[in-house]
Amino acid sequence: MDRIRIVGGNALNGIIPISGAKNAALPLMIASLLTSDTLTLENVPHLADVEGLIRILGNHGVDIAVNGRREHQDGSYSRTVHFTCRTVADTTAPYELVSKMRASFWVIGPLLAREGQARVSLPGGCAIGTRPVDLFIEGLTALGAEMEIDGGYINAKAPKGGLIGARYTFPKVSVGATHVMLMAASLARGTTVIGNAAREPEVVDLANCLIAMGAKISGAGTSTITIEGVPSLSGARHRVLPDRIETGTYAMAVAMTGGDVTLAGTELGLLDTAIEAIRRAGAEVSAVEGGIRVIGHGDAIRPVDIVTEPFPGFPTDLQAQFMGLMTRANGVSHVTETIFENRFMHVQELARLGAKITLSGQTARIEGVSRLRGAPVMATDLRASVSLVIAGLAAEGETMVSRVYHLDRGFERLEEKLTRCGAIVERISD
Ligand code: UD1
């Protein structure tokens, strides 16, 4: 199993190209199931989760063609991938596939809308909480589907003539359930109004792509989305939006190590709340042509309290990284997690580097220390593991992060991007 070795202490200086967003690419790829034409996606990141979904979609009958990767001047790569699902080969998503990647459960929306039926394995437990699927079941039921749980699977069946538009208000904000409702309602008969919809930029990206495919959607990015169903969708060409979590992660890394880095190909507007928190912690962040410039001052980190919330609040996917930054603040800060009930597994690993963190319910109290010291640590989930990398960059001596397959799920060429900016980071393959 690969490990990542980091020798901390170097400031980061240079350019880091930001990849296309994993969390946008996944639902966009799944949207290819809605049409028999070709959906072409540009700026698709090369990540384990994307490759996994390519295999899953292949199982459902999607033909996939990947254009060669081209390196640009700023060191970024762009990948264009063509997805064509002339006919759906299989409406079943088996446990072996869905259990590996929760987002693949989302195929339930397009399969049900296009084929009138789907049999999709329940995703099962997950390291960061129980993550139920009740909102998907309720939402699709509102569109007229019969949803039945049988042997660990959901059997979903649309009424004769297809799904029917309806008004449905989510009792809780869910990104995934909003994606699924958008896709399902696009091919339903009549109008659907989704209340308490997720407002994440990735939802807007999916809506824009569906609109390019011929869907009639308004209000994406607000909490009420209206979808007028159409009989069929066509192909389209769409560029995946920049990864705001990757953007925030590197911005926090620079705030922590010090240095001057331009994050290329991304936008401040995607992560206002997180940028505000990084600024309050003492880093300078500004919009520059083609990206964002971050100037960090390393030792002069101020304590800042944050609470994770659905967009536009502070993203849960940046919580672990921000806690990493706060371990070196000059004072006490608090990090409260409200989205997932068990998303503090990085706490004990950060403690191995010398961080002083105490947990009380959903809130972590972090007493900043003047220095962290490198140590062997273990990656536990995707975002937790990158918080260990950025803490390792700021620690004295060597940090060895094991179980890095978590990182490979969501961070494209992490070692290369950091090394180009002066960090000492290497992958060790055993
Ligand atoms: C997506 C992101 C993930 C991010 C999360 C929250 C992708 C691939 N993943 O995950 O990186 O951390 O949004 O921003 O885009 N819930 C229910 N019932 C349901 C569905 C969800 O109770 O049927 C709960 C979840 O357990 C969680 C909360 O709702 O507590 C939010 O989850 P949700 O927004 O659905 O997360 P995902 O879409 O899985």
Short description:
By secondary structure, the protein is of the alpha+beta class. Helices cover 30% and strands 26% of the residues. Helix 6 links the parallel strand 12 (167-169) and strand 13.
Verbal overview:
The protein has 430 residues and is of the alpha+beta class. It has two domains: 3-18 and 242-428, Alpha-beta prism (UDP-n-acetylglucosamine1-carboxyvinyl-transferase, Chain), CATH 3.65.10.10; 22-239, UDP-n-acetylglucosamine1-carboxyvinyl-transferase, Chain (Alpha-beta prism), CATH 3.65.10.10. The chain is built from 14 helices and 26 strands. The strands form seven sheets. It has a four-stranded mixed β-sheet. A four-stranded mixed β-sheet has the order 2-17-19-18. Strands 4-7-3-16 form a four-stranded mixed β-sheet, covered by helices on one side. Helix 1 (22-31) runs parallel beside helix 2, helix 4 packs parallel to helix 6 (175-186) and helix 8 (244-257) runs parallel beside helix 12. The longest helix is centred in the middle third of the chain and has 14 residues, at 244-257. The N and C termini lie close together (6 Å). The mean pLDDT is 94. Uridine-diphosphate-N-acetylglucosamine (UD1) is lined by residues 23, 26, 102-103, 129, 131-136, 172, 174-177, 316-317, 339-340. Residues 23, 26, 102-103, 129, 131-136, 172, 174-177, 316-317, 339-340 line the site of uridine-diphosphate-N-acetylglucosamine (UD1). Pfam families: EPSP_synthase (PF00275). UDP-N-acetyl-alpha-D-glucosamine binds at residues 102, 131-135, 172-175, 317, 339. Belongs to the EPSP synthase family. MurA subfamily.
